[in-house]
TrEMBL record:
It comes from the Bacteria. GO terms for molecular function: hydrolase activity. Keywords: Hydrolase. InterPro entries: Galactose-bd-like_sf, RhgT-like, SGNH_hydro, SGNH_hydro_sf. Belongs to the 'GDSL' lipolytic enzyme family. It comes from Paenibacillus whitsoniae. This is Rhamnogalacturonan acetylesterase.
Length: 366
């Protein structure tokens, strides 16, 4: 089924259930990740109204007309659960451009939010396209769509869309605190199985919580690959394309300036499984090690969530988190993944990257 419509934002008022669209602000920002009820406008500081559009569940191509006839505009766009789709796009006065991306809707509403120094979105066009494939993500807190109250905590699943074409939608099923084992035990993989289709993609990144000595932990060369294989089998049985991603390193530096490996044998275990099963493998551990060591101990604080007291409501006392990312940091982690997809020529996923994607998205790490 395919259908579409267009909305001129300057004529769009407050959300109305009868007309099925409009701008609105939620009563409060969402604090519970598993509720999946955050609005994209709440991932800005200060919060901005969210454009709500009542639509059937499915995949959509969204085309935005961006720019102003009489002023320079700087526009950032987020959709769904705070997923970045355009990052500080600059347009000169009188210049109007069209930008498209794909959106996966699972709750009956397509949600968009526009912000920036001087945002200007003139029109929103929405087209439902059942043929669009979906990029499913399975992982932990470093991948997940963090709830809006936790902003600026950001998983790379919320930023990978900056680098994707309008031919691939994102369904991020990652969840904080989960291991390859507990993700399955909680039926989260079963939820993916109900939606996964031939031609879709399933990206799998686990290890941070597999390493824990608890009920959710696994052993690197026995139970860890056994659980991971269930993800691979699901993808192959469905006709989808699996991709294994080794975990990025934490921000722990040795005295000589090198990154300490806190993942033990899990990286090698995933590599061996990928070779045995003939599955594409991205060594994000190696790439993140190179990147963090290049930045150094001080500059990597911008990648990870190091904040001052009073800087964010969620973190009134500040934090020194060496595992999770800021939004600019999550952009850089996604960039490393995209670089590996391009460098290794991982098909057909590579076809869904924006041409010159890495150069299009500027780094915000100083």
């Amino acid at each position: 089924m395919e259908f579409g419509y267009a909305i001129k934002t300057d004529l769009c008022g407050t959300y109305d259930m009868e007309q099925g669209y409009g701008f609105s602000l939620p009563l409060m920002r969402s604090k519970v990740e598993d509720m999946r009820d955050s609005w994209p406008g709440d991932y800005f500081i200060p919060a901005v109204p969210t454009l709500l559009m009542d639509v059937p569940n499915g995949n959509y191509r969204v085309t935005l007309t961006i720019g102003s006839p009489n002023r320079q505009a700087v526009t950032t766009v987020k959709e769904g659960l705070g997923r970045l789709r355009l990052y500080e796009l600059k347009t000169e006065a009188g210049v109007v451009v069209k930008k498209s991306f794909a959106v996966h809707v699972a709750d009956g509403q397509l949600k968009l939010a526009f912000s920036g120094e001087a945002p200007s979105v003139q029109q929103v066009e929405v087209m439902r396209l059942a043929s669009l494939p979906t990029l499913f993500l399975a992982g932990d807190s470093t991948v997940t769509d963090q709830p809006s109250f936790h902003y600026p905590y950001t998983g790379w699943g919320q930023t990978i869309g900056l680098f994707l074409s309008d031919g691939l939608a994102i369904a991020n099923h990652a969840c904080s605190g989960r291991s390859s084992k507990s993700f399955i035990q909680e039926s989260r993989l079963s939820r993916i199985a109900k939606k996964l289709r031939g031609g879709d993609f399933l990206v799998i990144q686990f290890a941070h919580n597999d390493e824990k000595e608890s009920d959710i932990g696994t052993e690197p060369f026995t139970t860890y690959p056994t659980y991971l294989k269930q993800y691979l089998d699901l993808a192959r049985d469905t006709g989808a394309y699996p991709l294994l991603v080794a975990p990025m390193h934490r921000r722990f530096f040795e005295e000589d300036g090198t990154i300490r490996n806190t993942h033990g044998d899990y990286i090698e275990a995933m590599r061996q499984l990928a070779e045995q099963e003939g599955i594409p493998f991205i060594d994000l551990a190696a790439r993140s090690k190179e990147y963090f060591e290049e930045l150094g101990e001080e500059r990597t604080k911008q990648v990870f969530l190091w904040t001052e007291a009073g800087q964010y409501e969620y973190l009134p006392e500040g934090t020194q988190d060496n595992t999770h990312f800021t939004e600019p940091g999550a952009v850089e982690i996604a960039r490393l993944i995209v670089s590996e997809i391009e460098g290794k020529g991982i098909e057909p996923l590579q076809r869904h990257l924006l041409p010159g994607a890495e150069a299009l998205v500027a780094s915000r790490i100083e």
